[in-house]
Amino acid sequence: REGFGRGFQAALPDGKLLEYRVAEGDEVSRARSLAEEAVKKGADIIFCTPGDFNEGVLPVAESRGILVILVGCDRSSSSPRHVLTSLVLRDDNAAFRAVEAAIRGELPTGVLEWGAEEGVWSLAPFLGHDIYVNRELKEALERETSRAAGMDF
């Protein structure tokens, strides 16, 4: 969450970021009510971190006409008009890289922090929203993705 907030502020210094947290348990219904609250406060796009609460946010996006960025796999087919993009997590790539390094005897001890550069996450294509996302924004996203790959979150 901290990394997203820092990235948001870097990209939109005058933007307003609303942050909500959902405790484990009743994630879906709680996420739905928090998403409704965010829309009432003017949210245009809701970014979800991984979890079941994505299922609570998507119906709000559909009923209130906003966009969401979901996390995990490419969820654009879930609601093509409302899923702007997905942050695709590729844990399989991380596991493959770690096993490959271990086999070569090159796996360091400790925590490894991998990101876009190592193929562990990426943005899914905008698909149906592509015509609404201008070239400058796409180029900026590519630059920010490259920059984020080297950031310490």
Written overview of the protein:
The chain has 153 residues and is an alpha/beta fold. It is built from 5 helices and 4 strands; from the N terminus they run ααβαββαβα. The protein has helices at residues 2-11, 27-40, 54-64, 91-103, 135-149; strands spanning 45-47, 67-72, 83-89, 121-123. It has a 4-stranded mixed beta sheet, covered by helices on one side. Helix 2 (27-40) runs parallel beside helix 3 (54-64). The longest helix has 15 residues, at 135-149. The radius of gyration is 17 Å and the shape is globular. The mean pLDDT is 81.
Any guess at the CATH architecture?
3-Layer(aba) Sandwich
Overall number of strands = 4
The largest sheet has its strands arranged as 1-2-3-4
Structural class call reads alpha/beta
User: Order of helices and strands, N to C?
Assistant: HHEHEEHEH
What proportion of the residues is helical, as a percent range?
40-55%
Number of individual domains: 1
Strand content: 5-15%
Radius of gyration: 17 Å
Mean pLDDT score: 81
Biggest sheet architecture: 4 strands, mixed
> So how many helices?
5
- Beginning-to-end CA distance, first to last residue: 9 Å
User: At the third CATH level, what is the topology name?
Assistant: Rossmann fold
Any low-confidence stretches, pLDDT <50, length ≥5?
none
The CATH class label is Alpha Beta
CATH superfamily: Response regulator
Shape: globular
